[in-house]
Specification:
Bound molecules: uridine-diphosphate-N-acetylglucosamine, calcium ion
Structural class: alpha/beta
Distance between the termini: 102 Å
Strand content: 25-35%
Amino acid sequence: MAEFITVILAAGKGTRMKSKLPKVLHKAGGKPMLQHVIDAAKGAGAKRSIAVVGFQAEMVREAISADTEIVVQAEQLGTGHAVLQTAEALKDETGTVMVLCGDTPLLTTGMLRSFYEAHCSNGAKATVLTAVMPDATGYGRIIRSADGMLEKIVEHKDATEAERRICEVNSGIYCFDKETLFSALAEVECHNAQGEYYLPDVLDIIRSQREQIAAYAVDDYESILGVNSRVQLAQAEKILRVRKNNELMEQGVTLMDPATTYIDAEVVVGSDTVIYPGTWLEGRTVIGSGCEIGPNCRFTDVKVGDNAVVSFTYAHECEMEEGVTVGPYVHIRPNTVLKNNVHVGNFVEVKNSNIGDGTKLPHLSYIGDCDMGSKVNMGCGTITVNYDGMMKHRTVVGDNAFIGCNANLVAPVTVGDGAYVGAGSTITKEVPAGCLAVARAHQKNIRGWADKRNNG
Ligand code: UD1
Ligand code: CA
């Protein structure tokens, strides 16, 4: 079946959000609402996606996928006026235009595809997707004639009491024959409660031209939820979260408590991974298979290899390879790579560092700007002194080095392969491979000191 073009309306400010951010850039499931709509349309077969933007147009352009075409609606005079702005971009097109709104993040590819196919086979010049909403407040209502045929759409603000009792609503999703759409748009007027050019008015116009219009009703009202307020944003977020959790469980991931597991739409998790409660997996996080993650982990843009065990950890923009064991109470910061089988124990922070295979950072360490080899043992409380108050410097630790407890490695400094550093040392000079470095005051024992203090 042929493909279609999609026009996504996203120019509004979203006054009811009370936000500096354009409404369509508010995130649900870690992804801007508009991007959810773009992705669903693409999945359903959109060959071109055109977003109509206005309020903070540049910001919107930068936040969405680059293959989305942009048309600017300088003044937001209504949804009909918004579609009209795409006339130039669509001048050589014929066939079906699917119009969507950028504030409906729950649309699914399957629903849009079925809708498009229904439009193609019903012979109508315009088809609108509708659903019966438990609470229709705010939506345009579907007015049907006595024989059940679609007559027109009335906006909530323009509706009579009787019309407001109708629960079948306009989803804001339509398929149009392109030529018919633009000729009808030219006739839309703005004599209504909001003084706007309403897109739904084209249906009545097309019908009065004796062309066929159709309504395509879906049962799944949840998927067409329009987000106009923060309360509706939270509702959308919750639905997306349940969907994502169910999808992962169906793929073989165990979630100990889905109700306290927050996984963004784009996150990937391998099979037989177990996720414990209180875990957030955000952004572009990718988790391997056979892992145990949580309880209480927050990962943002983190890549984790297979069979990793991580608990009580905040990690962002970093990578943990296969078989790592991390936590509890660990902070892994950007540009860190923990190679295979690294162990990071309690109360450790690692930043901008490469930690080699099998190395252990078991307790109470700060490791920043460090290149550490494999099978290193960092004693308890050992830190890299990476900042001199002006600049950051790197520390290099060779393979198999053994750093005693409470050592300070003052960067820039190098500890060679297989070298030892005595506990409590402050290392400021290179430690060559295989050496023992001890850099601390010698111990002095003063005989009789205690007696003298107590009796003298
Ligand atoms: C709109 C529909 C309503 C439908 C509901 C579904 C109209 C007049 N009303 O109402 O029938 O039930 O969606 O969610 O179409 N926009 C522009 N330019 C404008 C105005 C709006 O691009 O000049 C964009 C907005 O950014 C938004 C979308 O169009 O993404 C819908 O606008 P919104 O103000 O949210 O319309 P609703 O009142 O929800
Ligand atoms: Ca809306």
